[in-house]
Amino acid sequence: MKITSFKGLAVAAVLSAALISCKKDTPEVIGVDPTEVAGKYENGFFIINEGWFGHGTGSVSFYDAASGTLKDSVFQKENVGKGFEPASSTVQYGTVFNKNLYVISKVRGPVVVADAKTMKEVGRIPGSSEYDWRAFVGIDENNGLLSSSDGVYLVNLKTFKPSAKLLGSKGQMGDMLKTDKYIYTLSQTEGAVIYNVSDLSVQKKIAGVTMGFVKTPDGKVWFTGGKNLYKSDPVTLETETIELPFSTYTTYNAWFSSPIIASTKENAVFMIKLPGGWGGGKEIYKYISGDKSSLDKPFITVADKQVFYKKNLGYYAEADQIVTTTFVEGWGAGSATNNLNIYDAKTGALKKTVPFTGYHFPSMFAFH
Fold first, then answer.
1. Most CB within 10 Å of its CB: which of 25, 56, 147, 336?
2. DSSP symbols for 286-318
3. What whole-number distance in Å separates Cα of residue 188 and Cα of residue 186?
4. Contact criterion met (CB below 8 Å) for 176 and 183
5. pLDDT value of residue 26
6. pLDDT digits (tens, 9 = 90+) for 303-359
7. CA-derived radius of gyration, the chain
8. Rounded Cα–Cα distance for residues 154 and 14 (Å)
């Protein structure tokens, strides 16, 4: 079924109708596995693996903070017989919203939703020739947005069905971030397209934006454009410009999520310095808001012969740590030799390295 674009008023009406809440009785818990109640996949974080394209659909790994070990293919193991088919698609994006992990596949693949504590599937949008998804952002318990190769769609989080295509953006869209008043979305052709949360009308467009978006504890929203880092006020939408010592690139050549993250403990953002394209970087820069000297040198440089692949950068708030994955440069067999590296987010000191093998091609992290 083809989703038709609505006028702004109609989109608002769809959203308003979807926002009508329904009272639910709390079910009695009988015979539930106590390991699931405790949160089997709660103490740690997820690695979203693209997989070896053409040889599988990708997977989700989990880093168990208590044991310091990685658990592979946790979704497939908890949902026997289910995966991220069709095999022609590839897992690319993951995020936790309202206690669920949303795993998004490109190349006409599915959106798979799992309980983030148990990894049991709770819903999905099957792969379809009509959609080519990119990223997800939640609006409230009933509604979310999915970006795609062809605009941004409103999706019902109870039925897991797209219901409308937003006006104001076209072509390939990518990362998104919600604040109290606005939803920042990233367009390949138009830069930042900022929507009002209230009615999903366009409030502002900022041309030339190449990566984004993240939010620091002071509420500011950060994104980049070329050699500039921008700090946006989430109320007035006014921006401050900070010059970077390197150029940032778009992530639309074999799309992946922007390699920029933010701390939840200090007003600081972290960025991978990519040489271009979609991999090969070795350095992470940290910018502390108001301190230009923090950009004078890289904050983290990976070990010799190690390189990043796509958004191999995450912030683990529970421990105030930066986490990365790398593999051996040169592609080929080196792509199966991986390291999960954990750093102190304040000092950049390496705290732990967890080696793992296989053609996982980790694309990003997801956190509770």
1. 147
2. EEETTBGGGGSS-SEEPPTTEE-BSS-EEEETT
3. 7
4. yes
5. 33
6. 999 999 999 999 999 999 999 999 998 888 889 999 999 999 999 999 999 999 999
7. 20
8. 9
Q: Residue 291's Cα: distance from chain center in Å?
A: 27
Q: Which two tokens stand for residue 146?
A: 């999915």
Work out the average pLDDT over 166-191. 97
Closest-CA residue to 313 (of 348, 277, 355): 348
Architecture per CATH, domain 8-13+44-367, reads as: 7 Propeller (2.130)
Q: What are 94-101's contacts with CB under 8 Å, separation 24+?
A: 94/46, 94/48, 94/60, 94/364, 94/365, 94/366, 95/135, 95/136, 95/137, 95/366, 96/46, 96/366, 96/367, 96/368, 97/136, 97/137, 97/138, 97/144, 98/138, 98/141, 98/157, 101/46, 101/60, 101/366
Task: Give the tens place of pLDDT for each residue, 244-292.
Answer: 999 998 999 899 999 999 999 999 999 999 887 677 799 999 999 999 9
Per domain, the residue ranges of the chain are 8-13+44-367
The reported pLDDT for the residue numbered 226 is 93
What is the distance of C-alpha 257 from the center of its chain? Answer: 6
